[in-house]
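assembly run, all chains below
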Amino acid sequence: MTGTIRYDRDAGGVVTLTLDDPGQSANTMSRAYAASMTAAVDRLEAERDELTGVIVTSAKPTFFAGGDLPEMIKATPADAPALTALLTTIKADLRRLERLGRPVVAAVNGSALGGGLEIALACHHRIALDAPGARIGFPEVTLGLLPGAGGVTRTVRMLGLADALTRILLTGRQFRPAAARAAGLVDEVVGTPEEMLAGARAWIAAHPDAAQPWDRPGYRIPGGGRALAAQLPAYPANLRKQLKGNRLPAPEAILAAAVEGTQVDVDTALRVETRYLVSLLTSQIAKNMIGAFFFDLRAVNGGASRPAVEVAPVTRVAVLGAGMMGAGIAYACARSGLDVVLKDVTAEAAARGRGHAEKLLSREVAKGRLDAERAAAVLARITATADVAALTGCDAVIEAVFEDPALKHAVFAEAEPVLAPDALLASNTSTLPITGLAAGVRRPADFIGMHFFSPVDRMPLLEIVVGERTGDAALARAFDLARRIGKTPIVVNDGRGFFTSRVIGRFLDEAVTMLAEGVPAPSIEQAALQAGYPTGPLALADEVSLSLIQRIRRQFEAAAGDDFPVLPGHAVVDRMLDEHDRPGRAAGRGFYDYDAGRRGRLWAGLAALATAEGRAIPLIDLQERMMFAEALDALRCRDEGVLRSEADGDIGSLLGIGFPAWTGGVLRYVRQYPGGPAGFAARAAELAKTYGERFTPPAL
Ligand code: NAI
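ok done. output:
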């Protein structure tokens, strides 16, 4: 044993290096790992003449988990020299391993993400075990980082610049083993650990002279040479287009490290990569993203907000309403192995909803993600019906009929008598308070909000809404159901619009208010995109539909009475609907024109909606008005108890409503604002003075 790596040499001269950090559930690129790897490679070099080859594998369920994130998140600029030294050591050892002069095979027995894949890429051959849940890839970009232990350099040299960037490094995609092989990241996929180790030995025996392609004379980067040089100038521009001007530094750093790396030898490229990683690591943005997309996400998915009660899992789900949301929910449940009864008013409407699931499934089959037989089995789990008797025995119901409280009461009253006696009663309402809806059912303790996002098959978030009378068992069951269908559940307390619908409303209100003030529509969209929002607010409003936005605002207005803050933007929405009949994307016309469903240009009539003389508003003010409008409302949600934890608020804002990813979430944005929460409050007060009292900060 050498620290975190076991060294075993067999009679045939094959050394197995087993990654096995004692006392840790997973191996990470810690200082202990670095020291162990140095010692292991020292010994390999010393014994070289007696060796025939090396197998690198792991004793943990995952091959190797990647960087030591708890350590990394603490890094400050003062740590840069120490980080550089550590990375230099890690890379030098992997470099020595691949130039040992003996075949080295990675036996990837489980997930190899980030650092794990980097170790595997430094081996001459990679055999992956098709273990349940195993994932292979470089998720660094999603954490504000780059694969800086040789990942950028070796991926580019294996796959060529274009594929490495656009398929692997910039996407952060985590591949199943078979898909990783198709992408060129591993060479073989096997079904058992025995096959994996036997395969490694066989490869070693057949390749005594193994070396990395880039260490052989005459090596050229695939697609390289003149063709590559000709592409280079176009890359940054293409990338910016792809990122829509997003200000995330990681993709830009990955691009720069990759492109610069192609112009120099491997060892220099590895040094370039280190420089970029260290600058990302010591930046606040990486800390924000690691904090949210790793630590908060783990806490939220791990059940930090789930009461610790034992409950029976849901097996048969009734979905009421087979419209856009109901059909998506039925698909998501069936895809995860649950039986679904999908009910609408007519058999035709129910069948249409099932048809939506069928379309999604055939798309998956076409993409090779699902075989036809399994797709048919998934579809067979969905029963489409107009008959309430078909709901008999369902142990959960998710209601997704029109957003009308009376109708929702009616469908629950109709379903309750035939459901299992303890069935979970959930509504997918996007705004109606859960406590009010629960008043109509026999068992309000079993009633809960399960607010999905559109499109259900692609949106990872589910907002679980706890009403005043919702019991712990219902919450636990809803939570488990959410996890079962692969969603990330945040748990919030009841209130109009809960957390997400309410906060996103402030963003849309602020944007249309800018239109009323005479800010050109393209400037509003561009300001949001540059701030890091995935979609401009006017495009988003078209998606949501202006009629829905108006309806929700009127509900809020009716509930708040005289306290309701009237904004100039409200009139813009009303005029878009009443005078111009432009309700949004579904109708083919909203703030944008649409051609066969595709977004075209911003509508030429928008400038005429301004009620004030356009004045020059600085870009930063446009951006911060949108971000502060959301952040201030999130603070109110926290203070009013709608939010139960900051992690729920941050994850909800990132996965549900597109708050800029670089912030690590809407509440982290407040905490990390220059000057901290006090700096945020001071800036909010400034915005309040210039743009209106809605920006007045709460006491922080
Ligand atoms: P939709 O209009 O596409 O579908 C509603 C469906 O309910 C229709 O197929 C209708 O025939 C059916 N229905 C009406 N009365 C029924 C009854 N008595 N029994 C069974 N089915 C009945 O609406 P959508 O967009 O799917 O929304 C449904 C619910 O989900 C609403 O409460 C909405 O607020 C909520 N929601 C919508 C989101 C969205 O992005 N559209 C997002 C999250 C929640």
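The chain has 28 helices and 21 strands.

The mean pLDDT is 94.

not gonna interpret more than that til we talk
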